[in-house]
Amino acid sequence: MKYLDIESLRNLNSRLSFPTSSGDRHVLGRVESYSCKVAGADKKLYRLLEQKHQEDLEEAKGLSPEQSSLTNTFSPFGPLTQSASRKTLFYLLATLNASFPDYDFSSVPADRFTKEPSPDSAIKSINSTLVNVGSPATLRVVRMWDSIDEIINIDECSVYSYTPDDESNHYEDENPVWSFNYFFFNKSLKRI
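That's the RNA polymerase III-inhibiting protein maf1 sequence above. Prediction below.
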């Protein structure tokens, strides 16, 4: 994944770190953009995921037909027997690895992700959170969603959220009250 250094996002990120309205907590937010250009460590991760898929297929051959049908389970990206579904999982894992370089997300299973019903539902959730913690100005003044839309074309995106388990929680050391991760994936732009 290639990090895209975009000035409008730098400006937005400076507004996404602020004390809550009660003053007893601090919000640390960030919006980043990545190109789905595969390079270096990403190629290794992709090969690792493909190898694991092949191993799962081999293991399924020894199962009864009833048991092997369980290996053809659906993920938020579609059936993992399809290359496009596995590639979407790969893009999200590679983005997490790029966003949090001190952590390794290569073994995070597909079920830690959820496909959001629509971009609008994710936007409403994010807006609600920002308003509730005391930063409605971020939405109005910086026109957050306009900035993001210019980069990703929100209406053409599939949106996924990520919920870490206890072992892969990259915020564990910071002891947050809450956190969320949304990925707006525009397949045609090859951008997250």
